[in-house]
Amino acid sequence: MQRRSDQSAATLVADPPEAEVSPRRPPAGRVKSAEIRDILEQEIATGERHAGERLDEQAVAARFGVSRTPVREAINQLASAGLVALIPNRGAFVRETGLGELVEMFEVMAELEAMAGRLAARRVDPKRRVQLAEALAACQSAAERNESDAYYYENERFHEAIYDACGNGFLAAEARRLHQRLKAFRRLQLRVPHRMRQSLAEHRRIVAAIEAGDGETAEAELKSHILVQGERFADLVASLKPKQG
Amino acid sequence: MQRRSDQSAATLVADPPEAEVSPRRPPAGRVKSAEIRDILEQEIATGERHAGERLDEQAVAARFGVSRTPVREAINQLASAGLVALIPNRGAFVRETGLGELVEMFEVMAELEAMAGRLAARRVDPKRRVQLAEALAACQSAAERNESDAYYYENERFHEAIYDACGNGFLAAEARRLHQRLKAFRRLQLRVPHRMRQSLAEHRRIVAAIEAGDGETAEAELKSHILVQGERFADLVASLKPKQG
DNA sequence: TGCCCGAATATCGTATACAATTTCCTTGAC
DNA sequence: GTCAAGGAAATTGTATACGATATTCGGGCA
């Protein structure tokens, strides 16, 4: 009965529902709760949903043309991710990721990355070492062409390579999670002028330390590398909204 | 049927609009999903549910005499915690939290705790300092009475005090999350004999370093403190199930 | 006028029913 | 005898309904 084909009221369809020739592929976009979660997550990250706003289950359900059930699941997942706060009989509220908390997140990110670098210097195997060198080369190539978008992408790959090389799968997963969460905010600092060249130099020192098996140096370099990003970001945000709130 | 008023259902951070500390108790009634989640969590931790086993929603629902809805919520929370893997239209499968991954988790936990200690040594304010001292005193009291259960509880409080004292709310939340996840496994090592006295001595050194503002020492002591726990735990597990099938 | 108590309202948690997809078994053809 | 195709059974995902509980507003009483 609920052959709900009126998707006009909702931006629910991210990819064509015609999954005709891909029966083996994992159904990425078919589960509505995941779809709703992703959309809400993006809206929160971009600030479209301002802090403190209440996410009304019924309203969200009506907006996407679904029932409360998938909305509930989506909101619960957002709560687990720390993006919204659940107050028992009051509803779900968008948590304000203020500048202070962002700095805190960068601080933790720096520690995790530094740990990954320290472990990588001790445990890296030849295959991962090659991948790391390749990722560094790709960064350098992008920097020489002065393409900040490409550098942004290769930078992601570089840090992924470090995660992979650390030999601690759990740490890698946690680092990826945090990286993903900070990603939305990091986009803003894409076009800081001399940052790219400086970042590349830091990458070189990091790789050199890992290659040399010098865990202490790799740790220190990586921590500084991330903390600098956090500070730059804080400056940027502070300059963008000087009298926020 | 001991009613555990464990409020660790979700991230109930009091952050939204005018969310002051709510003196009203959480849904201390019976939230069935939380209860089911706790039981399943413990079963998975103890190995009662072996790795790869499928968690049948109807079976669990029938077992607890509830409908599938709270079971689904519980399973989703377990998935968020990383204890089970969700395959879209196939079901939930118990992830094998092998000894290797547990060691990895303790490694990360050690790093986060050490970071918290380092920051606490620099940033702790008088009020938190008093709380830390009180937590240490409570630990000592429990140790003198040789009550391991009480010590276990006070130990939790002690580490909570360190999280609070670090001045980084995000780090504190992440540390609590990991601590919570490891808690299920840590239950097993309650009664390791001389561990309590040794742990207390380590606590004393940690507090002394924080009081002295010596971040480096606090960091090193805490890291060692957690890593020792991880090693003890690994020994225990290894001795418990040598050929876990 | 202020406080307490109770009903109305809203929201959450759970139960039940239905739809969609996957898996497995049966059956038929080569 | 083996393999493939189709359908039935099973299981997940979603919809709708209902009960329980907390919040709020209004009225009565001190």
UniProtKB/TrEMBL annotation, chains A, B:
Q: Where is this region: Disordered?
A: 1-31
**Domain HTH gntR-type, first and last residues per copy:** 30-97
The record's listing under PROSITE patterns reads: HTH_GNTR
Name the source organism.
Answer: Jiella sonneratiae
Does the record's keyword annotation contain Transcription regulation? yes
**What's the protein name?**
GntR family transcriptional regulator
SUPFAM superfamilies xrefs: GntR ligand-binding domain-like, Winged helix' DNA-binding domain
Supply the alphabetized keyword list: DNA-binding, Transcription, Transcription regulation
A Pfam family cross-referenced in the UniProt record is GntR
The answer, when asked if DNA-binding is one of the entry's keywords, is yes
